[in-house]
Amino acid sequence: MAHKHIQCTVNGQKLSLEVAVGESLLDMLRNRLHLTGTKKGCGVGECGACTVLLDGEAIDSCLFLAVWADGKDIRTIEGESKEGKLSKVQEAFVEEGAVQCGFCTPGFVMSVTALVEKGCQCEREGLKKELSGHMCRCTGYHNIVNAAEKAIGEP
């Protein structure tokens, strides 16, 4: 398989990598960089478990090729806590009990982080729509939406 050299920033660290032309960003993050917080769920962009931020936009990393990340800024769940302190979105998820098994949690956190950083002022129904690309098998989504509301409402 053909390879290409890319340069990108992952969680604030500038990297230079050789990636296979058909390799997904998800596989690059998990297999090459050992950032396993980004989860492989459905593999077809339907569950949201692989959500990362690419230049501030929430994307499904399973559908995004690693070669397209050349020159991009990528943030994963591992980059959200700073010096052992959880981000305000992570704190909201803990405080609202918005975690069960935890498999889907990183994707939800990254999507809510993108909403917070964009200054989203969504009402509850709008938040449900924004998060509709995520699937959780453990909860009824109530606490997840509560956590998103809390994170968005906090300065």
Show the helix and strand layout.
Blueprint: E1 3-10, E2 13-20, H1 25-32, E3 51-54, E4 57-60, E5 73-75, H2 88-95, H3 105-117, H4 124-130, H5 142-153
Parallel strand pairs: 1-5
Antiparallel strand pairs: 1-2, 3-4, 3-5
The CATH topology of the largest domain is given as Ubiquitin-like (UB roll)
Major beta-sheet overview = 5 strands, mixed
Q: What is the typical, i.e. mean, pLDDT?
A: 95
N-to-C CA distance: 48 Å
State the helical fraction: 25-40%
Structural class: alpha+beta
- Unreliably modeled segments: none
Rg, alpha carbons: 15 Å
Strands of the largest sheet, in order across it? 2-1-5-3-4
CATH superfamily of the largest domain: Beta-grasp domain
Encode the helix/strand succession as letters: EEHEEEHHHH
What is the 3D form? Answer: globular
CATH architecture of the largest domain: Roll
Would you kindly provide a written description of the structure presented here, covering whatever features stand out?
The protein is of the alpha+beta class. It folds into two domains: 3-79, Beta-grasp domain (Ubiquitin-like (UB roll)); 88-153, DNA polymerase, domain 1, CATH 1.10.150.120. 31% of the residues lie in helices and 17% in strands. The chain has five helices and five strands, in the order ββαβββαααα. It has helices spanning 25-32, 88-95, 105-117, 124-130, 142-153; strands spanning 3-10, 13-20, 51-54, 57-60, 73-75. Strands 2-1-5-3-4 form a five-stranded mixed sheet, covered by helices on one side. A hairpin with a 2-residue loop joins strand 1 (3-10) and strand 2. The termini are far apart.
